[in-house]
Amino acid sequence: MNARGALGRYGEDLAARLLTEAGMAVVERNWRCRTGEIDIVATDGDALVVCEVKTRRSGSFEHPMQALTPVKADRLRRLAEIWLARHGGPPPGGVRIDLVGVVLPGRGAPVTEHVRGVA
Question: What CATH number does the domain containing 104 carry?
Fold first, then answer.
């Protein structure tokens, strides 16, 4: 695994822990199909959550929360539809797309931010 992959994996580990601590249950990580990848699939009560994780080092060009473009949001919606079709359809609580941004400062603890319902 290269340095970028390791950084992304570390951010996803932190995001999974954050979601779990918020009372969610992680169902799957790094689910892939021909259309792309979902970083984390989780449940929040009776809702399904498709979670995109963006990790950046402090001082990088853009904040991770700015990385969810309209094109990326559309792709996440398509990926959620494919995941649901392969896993029995939508749950009673519907589907939500969340974003977790992780910033790794030069010193100190990582800073995580979870935004619900971004797309």
Answer: 3.40.1350.10
